[in-house]
Amino acid sequence: MTKKFIKIGLVSISDRASSGQYEDKGIPHLKKWLTETLVDPFESEEVIIPDEFKIIQTTLIDLTDQKKCDLILTTGGTGPAKRDITPEATLSVGDKEMPGFGEQMRQISLNFVPTAILSRQVAVIRNTTLIINLPGQPKSIAQTLEGLKDGEQKIKVPGIFAAVPYCLDLIGGPFIDTKKEVLKSFRPKKK
Known about the structure:
34% of the residues lie in helices and 21% in strands. It is of the alpha/beta class.
């Protein structure tokens, strides 16, 4: 039986935001974007944590196994700096790696900044939960989720979120859809 709603974990990974040195902008931006994009309402679990391998690992496991999130979106900690260990922690909890998500995010971001090749976003499936590492900057988050648009707002390079609803279908998650004026989700035509 398909669930009627989706539960989404939103995780900001930042030493400074988690210690209160500055206000986290990733989670509010993600929540606003999801509210404007998803057709149906969603429930969210929101966490701000430091760049600590064990804390990231434990948080992702808790959000999947205990809190039963269907989708987890992380932001931050995916660069080459010494403290950026989000991808390693994410890979350590996954049952399957989904490399296309990271590849597509870098492809989109390269249209805006040459340093996109330094990003190391990954995605994994744990049980029936899809976990995706997103960039840390709110503007980059929206660009990678929605894709690259031309002057007439037509998609030139698809964003990663277009594939999320069908991925959730395939792994036994809830049925979700997107508002077509924001982002058209893709599902193969039934024969």
